[in-house]
Amino acid sequence: MIFFQAYLSGVEAQSKALGVDLRVLDSRQDAALQADMVDQAIALGVQGIIIQHGLTESMKEAAQRAVDAGIKVVAFDVNVENPEIPQVEQSDRDLARLALEQAVKDNGESWKAGYVYVAGIAPLDRRNETWVDVKKKFAGINEVAMFGTLDNPIANSVANQARSVLSAHPDIKVMFAPYDEFAKGVKIAVDEAGLSKDIKIYSADISTSDIAAMREPDSAWAATAATNPAVVGQVSVRVLAQLLAGEDPGHNVIVPPTLITQKDLVDKDIKNMEDLSAKLPQFAHADVAMPAWMPNPNAK
Amino acid sequence: MTLRDHAIRYGFILLLFGLIAYFATAADGFVSPQSAVFIFQSVAITGVLALGVTATLVVGGFDLSIGSVATSAMMAAAYVMVVLEQNAVVAVIACLLIGAVVGLINGWLIVYMRVPDLLATLGMMFLLVGLQRIPTEGRSIATGMTMPDGSVANGKFSDAFLALGRHRFDFFIPNLIPVSVVVLLVLAALIWFFLEYTRFGRMMYAVGSNERAAELAGAPVKAYKIWAYIISGVFASIGGILLAARLGRGDIASGNNLLLDAVAAALIGYAVLGAAKPNAFGTAVGALFVGILLQGLTMMNAPYYTQDFVKGVVLVVALVFTFALSGRGRR
């Protein structure tokens, strides 16, 4: 939800900068409805469509129908398997890589790790690939516990699991929780167990409340890697604009992530997402799909 | 008593001790005061919800809205403190009021509008899941959040409120027992005494076992039923307060998992001591049973779906105990 709000704000900002007449069709995570909405957009006579998330199975044919109707289409984080349609992606592998490189930098190449993972969720699966590679590369990294759940409120359920894991393995040094809700849960458990000085948490994604949690004195949450969802939204619109202008944005458009450490937040006095964009410029703007004529919504 | 009676009466308690013995040998660190306290803490929120739903089960009803009452109370607490910048007392009162009002409306729908309990509380569940998102247009609430009108919410969760989730009382060992566990134990004792030993509680059982007879005997059946839903709503909102204090944020959430775990605990409770009816002691033991299982399984690295599976097995076994073995389920 938080991701979608921020993504949409980016889409709106770039659309405004370009003078696009934007319609937002919210499928509320209903796969069938999302496909119907593509047909609805075709019937509206739009010039371009951005498809955000969804399932390959349900969106592939709908996307093809839009292309057949002469509409330019861009897909974000859903593979519609169509050479005509550019794929905008936040690189989950890079997210995980950045966070884990920081973990190795902070803790050396040999530690006991707890890992939070739920299989079958595409971004988490991609982040998992990197974790598997890192474990292969560093034989000293020993995953003693793997847990995770999406029972909501997620942070509360993960906190309960993490407490159990910590009592079984009090010698864990690093928790890799590559989704911020997981990291919040682990942090609650670490605090409750009184281990916040002995464990470090590495995660992915960021929000205002994550920033507050990372900034707490003695917070175990050491670093997170994140792509700014607003920037991803902006890039999606820019890619569509390039298509409509007859330019080739390339088939895979990757928005690079940023590493955010606890030290960055404290040293630069970053308290919320606005501060983060203002004080970490690489987080605020991605130089992706930026031909000379493209208006920059982030330019002050 | 025959062997069969003993099995029905003590079987589930024995199972509980067997489980503890098994995990004690299989999982390192399972037996320690901290671990025991943690099991209580992990079931505190669902336990409080379960005690509330027990009150509606007693009068022969059901409350599907407890999970969403809890998450709505959590959002209300966050809204009151972060957006309206009020203190902990106002936040707690707001939550309790929400619980009481929702319970009252549930009761009114069921008693006076004659909507079947499952349907009325199902409707209320949907209503609350939507309602809790309206004030912030679907945003979760945290200090420093940007409001729909572009302003920034600067209020904070007050320390007194957070203490409800984080403070620990000394008990032989310093900083051992969290507030949430004390709340669970106190509420469990209260509702147990209320249902078993007060006239009001006994009358609620009478309404549940035979509504018509209770009515003919001159009992104000409608009032008892409405009170049961108010108890359920207030308990659920207390669960929401504990949840907000633990998370330190207002998370939009349906609370469906809270509902399911709470209902499971209350139903497992039917089997405890062969009661074959909703009872507060059984509910508390049921919640603990689930907590012990999850703690042990997680410590042994079992993935989450096996935990759901095991929870389901326990529930089914408990229901078999209740309805088949005791033979009292048939009415």
Largest sheet of chain B: 2 strands, antiparallel
Enumerate the spans of chain A where pLDDT stays under 50 for 5 or more consecutive residues.
none
How many domains is the backbone of chain A divided into?
Answer: 2
What top-tier CATH class of the largest domain in chain A fits best? Alpha Beta
Using the CA coordinates, give the radius of gyration of chain B. Answer: 20 Å
The CATH architecture of the largest domain in chain A is 3-Layer(aba) Sandwich
GO molecular function (chain B): hydrolase activity; transmembrane transporter activity
Pfam family, one (chain B): BPD_transp_2
Membrane topology (chain B): Multi-pass membrane protein
Organism (chain B): Mesorhizobium metallidurans STM 2683
Please give a structural write-up.
The complex is a heterodimer of chains A (300) and B (331). Chain A is an alpha/beta fold. Chain A has helices at 2-18, 31-44, 56-68, 92-107, 122-137, 154-168, 180-192, 208-215, 229-244, 262-267, 273-279, 281-284, and strands at 48-52, 72-76, 87-90, 111-116, 141-147, 174-177, 200-204, 221-226, 252-255, 258-261. Chain A is globular. Chain B is mostly helical and 331 residues long. Chain B has one domain: Orthogonal Bundle (ABC transporter involved in vitamin B12 uptake, BtuC). Helix content of chain B is 71%, strand content 3%. Chain B has 13 helices and 2 strands, in the order ααααααββααααααα. The longest helix of chain B has 27 residues, at 221-247. Classes of the chains: A alpha/beta (300), B mainly alpha (331). Chain B: It holds the Pfam family BPD_transp_2. Chain B: Keywords: Cell membrane, Hydrolase, Membrane, Transmembrane, Transmembrane helix. Chain B: The chain crosses the membrane at residues 7-24, 36-59, 66-84, 90-111, 118-135, 171-195, 226-245, 257-273, 280-297, 309-327. Chain B: It comes from Mesorhizobium metallidurans STM 2683.
